[in-house]
UniProtKB/TrEMBL annotation:
Ranges of residues in domain PucR C-terminal helix-turn-helix: 490-547
Similarity-based family: Belongs to the CdaR family.
Record-given protein name: PucR family transcriptional regulator ligand-binding domain-containing protein
Domain Purine catabolism PurC-like, first and last residues per copy: 7-123
Coiled-coil intervals, chain numbering: none
Domain CdaR GGDEF-like: 297-437
InterPro entries referenced in this protein's UniProt entry, alphabetically: CdaR-like_regulators, CdaR_GGDEF, PucR_C-HTH_dom, PucR_C-HTH_sf, PucR_dom
Length: 560
């Protein structure tokens, strides 16, 4: 961000200056008075004033001084002639020409203070002009987002004012906008094209804070650069840019890139807010549909239509209890970008995404919502409402989900199809009941269809009779009291023993117990209940009592 050398030399106080070299295409960003030694006091693109004191009569010392200025990459070196230095030697002029340093002789009577004032004023005016220009671009970028335009318009503005081919991707590196950026480089960066990609040090040596955040990639013989788009400490996407060959990246360009990053971050925040609002509206609508009996009138059907749902199709309901066996930070999907407080939302996002994908694969509409740790899915049903179709859908959901989220299992309850039309609350209740009963009988990750619970529902109806309640309590209370006092797990031991049809060997393996320890527990069960496990009637009474007791626990837990 400087003033061309040609403009500087046109200042009134430099009218009498004698330019000894060609006027090279350089900029002046600062001016200072520096005498020998130079050391590191001269900056890039600086206008250096000197009286030649200490080296005017010593040509080798003067040459060393000029070389130091050249190494500092200054734009102009002006000597005040007439006191210490009367004329710049030809060898010094040749040296300056060789390195494209503009060399100037200034009469001794011209005051350095006037030159300093004039050049600084010119630089300041140029800075103000550039600032107004860049500020206008910043406002244009922000207005682009506020007026509802997208990322493609942002890339167009960036290219218009900088000439930099550029592209914008989301955090998954899916390209969302491209303005003359080489697509083959994008494919190489994303691994879709075989190429040697290496991270290198970028060549920009600008005094701009954004340069510290640039990532440079060497792809074959090409180079491209990447900046990360951040918002609320979360990675939203990437801004890619590639200067044309021999195109100089200036401080002004870096400032425009910085404003482009801000506009991109604002766009992604806006997009995320809209998406989250839509998700929240859908979640609340489906949750109300599932948990409350609602009249299917035109108003409700119209509201569903606005959210993208067709309630006039038949649906089957799935209710899943989601269990995670390891911290969220170890899941593949999290990638360290989400704070721990949002891990549940992150998991729900992946479950919802995979449910939608599975629905697309089977050609059915899917509606998904969440009730804390439970997922509720309504899947468009076929005419038969077969178990095979339901299992096929869940297989698709779980196969991809288990790859994305480590250590997750889902216990499913599935409603009956029946008519399937506009019975969302009834269907949800069936699926919830199937889930609760399945949790008592099946291992984690099992699936229970509502029609498989007919026996349990019959038993539950019987359990409400007072006389039966008393029989169950008299039969099991000694075991319950003993388990609470001794932590012996006699009830669980009997359930496993009964599951394996009284086979002692299979039961001991399942419980990881020595055979004698199992036989000791079985004798305790017989002594406490007064029933024989070898008597068919006693065994049936004990099994029936346990099942009724478990169903009572399910009933007392109620809706969750």
């Amino acid at each position: 961000m400087g003033v061309p050398v040609e403009e500087v030399l046109k200042l009134p106080m430099l009218e009498k200056a004698n330019v000894q070299t060609p006027v090279y295409d350089r900029d002046v960003e600062w001016i200072s008075v520096i005498e020998t030694p130079v050391e590191n006091f001269v900056r890039n693109n600086e206008f250096v004033l000197s009286t030649g004191v200490g080296c005017g009569e010593n040509i080798p010392a003067l040459e060393a001084y000029v070389k130091d200025v050249i190494r500092s990459d200054a734009s102009i070196l002006a000597f005040a002639t007439g006191r210490h230095l009367f004329k710049i030697p030809d060898r010094i002029i040749a040296l300056a020409e060789q390195h494209e340093l503009v060399l100037v002789e200034i009469p001794w009577e011209v005051r350095f203070a006037d030159i300093l004032q004039g050049v600084l004023q010119l630089i300041n005016e140029e800075k103000q002009k550039v600032h107004r220009h860049v500020e206008g671009i910043r406002q244009e970028l922000i207005n682009c987002v506020l007026n509802g335009k997208g990322l493609q318009e942002i890339t167009t503005i960036l290219y218009q004012y900088t000439g930099l081919p550029n592209a914008i991707s989301d955090h998954l590196k899916h390209i969302r906008a491209n303005q003359h950026f080489d697509s083959s480089l994008i494919d190489a960066l994303n691994g879709r094209k075989e190429a040697v990609v290496s991270l290198i040090e970028h060549p920009f040596r600008l005094e701009h804070p954004l340069t510290h955040f640039i990532e440079a990639y060497q792809i074959g013989e090409e180079c491209c650069y990447q900046l990360t788009i951040l918002s609320n400490y979360k990675k939203q996407g990437y801004l890619l840019f590639q200067p044309e060959k021999d195109q100089e990246v200036t401080t002004e360009m870096m400032t425009i890139l910085e404003h482009t990053l801000t506009a991109c971050a604002l766009y992604f925040v806006k997009e995320n807010a809209i998406e989250m609002t839509e998700i929240r509206l859908k979640d609340n609508f489906l949750l109300d549909l599932a948990k409350q009996e609602q009249r299917m009138d035109k108003q409700l059907l119209s509201k569903a239509g606005l959210l993208g749902y067709d309630l006039e199709k038949p649906y089957v309901c799935f209710v899943g209890e989601v269990l995670f066996h390891q911290p969220a930070s170890r899941s593949v999907g999290n990638d360290g970008q989400l704070p721990s407080s949002s891990s549940l939302q992150s998991r729900n996002y992946y479950i919802q995404k995979e449910a939608a994908y599975a629905g697309h694969m089977v050609g059915r509409q899917v509606m998904t919502t969440f009730d804390e740790e439970r997922v509720i899915i309504f899947l468009e049903a076929d005419k038969e409402g077969s178990e095979e179709a339901a299992n096929q859908f869940l297989d698709l959901v779980e196969r991809r989900l288990f790859e994305l989220l480590a250590g997750v299992t889902i216990q499913w309850g599935i409603s009956c199809h029946k008519d399937g039309y506009q019975v969302f609350h009834h269907s949800y209740e069936e699926a919830r009941t199937a889930l609760q009963m399945g949790e008592q009988q099946n291992e984690a990750g099992g699936r229970t269809f509502f029609k498989e619970t007919r026996m349990n529902r019959l038993l539950m109806a019987l359990s409400h009779k007072k006389e039966i309640e008393e029989i169950v309590q008299d039969t099991l209370q000694p075991l319950i009291d003993y388990d609470q006092k001794r932590q012996a797990e006699l009830l669980h031991t009997f359930m496993v023993y009964n599951k394996y049809n009284s086979n002692v060997s299979q039961t001991s393996r399942a419980l990881n117990l020595h055979r004698q320890s199992l036989l000791h527990r079985l004798r305790n069960i017989e002594q406490l209940t007064g029933l024989s496990l070898l008597n068919a009637d006693d065994l049936f009474l004990l099994e029936l009592s346990v099942r009724l007791w478990l169903l009572k626990k399910v009933e007392k837990s109620g809706p969750q």
